[in-house]
Design a protein that fits this description.
Elements: H1 20-23, H2 39-50, E1 61-67, H3 71-78, H4 84-87, E2 93-100, H5 112-129, E3 133-137, H6 142-148, E4 155-164, H7 174-180, H8 189-192
Antiparallel strand pairs: 1-2, 2-4, 3-4
Helix pairs in contact: 2-5
Length: 197
């Protein structure tokens, strides 16, 4: 099968207009293997995560960031699962999102993963503002990442996000290229919203 849809801009179908950064955000798997992420861009992503909302300002989130060509990147890549390993190596950077699930004293941080999700969302929007794209992956070897980066049990690696410059879908293996060009879909609002007045 030949993939003919080469568009790298994919708007969403919404009931009302959204801001452009949200409307055009999507999660590609095809990244330009020659494109790099600058120090300033990577810092901007991490700053966006740092300033995301946090319950009681506890900030129970940590990040491990590696740019392609570094040991950190290679270690993160080695701890991805399944078909993620087929495409994520072309990303300019990989960032592990880690939830701090308990304090040093062992007190549970109930909202850690919620906080972490807010931070990753902020990074994703910042990436789009920087001319980059992001793709989050839950298919990771959390224990492998924990061991590789000397994280104690209270730190839970939750996701890895690939950041980079989107490339043509046709450069992916055929099955992934097909998925890359499928229409973007979401549940209808009336399926998501339980009550609204």
């Amino acid at each position: 099968m030949t993939i003919t849809n080469s568009s790298t801009v994919r708007s969403s179908e919404t009931e009302v207009p959204l801001v452009e950064l949200l409307d055009e955000r999507w999660s590609p798997r095809s990244f330009d293997a020659a494109a790099e992420i600058t120090d300033a861009q990577l810092t901007a992503l991490l700053e966006a995560a740092r300033w995301a909302p946090s319950a009681s300002n506890m900030q129970p989130r940590r990040f491990i960031a590696g740019r392609r060509g570094t040991k950190t990147f290679d270690t993160i890549l080695a701890n991805l699962m399944g078909f993620n390993t087929l495409w994520a190596g072309n990303a300019a950077a990989l960032v592990v999102a880690v939830a701090e699930t308990a304090t040093d004293e062992g007190e549970e941080r109930r909202w850690a993963q919620y906080d972490l999700g807010l931070a990753v969302s902020a990074m994703t929007v910042q990436a789009h503002a920087e001319g980059l794209h992001a793709h989050q992956m839950a298919g990771i070897e959390a224990d492998g990442i924990r061991t590789a980066f000397d994280l104690t049990e209270r730190f839970l690696p939750v996701t890895v996000t690939a950041f980079g410059v989107v490339d043509e879908a046709g450069k992916l293996p055929e099955k992934l290229a097909e998925r890359e060009t499928l229409p973007r879909t979401r549940l209808a609002l009336d399926e998501l919203v339980v009550a609204r007045d």
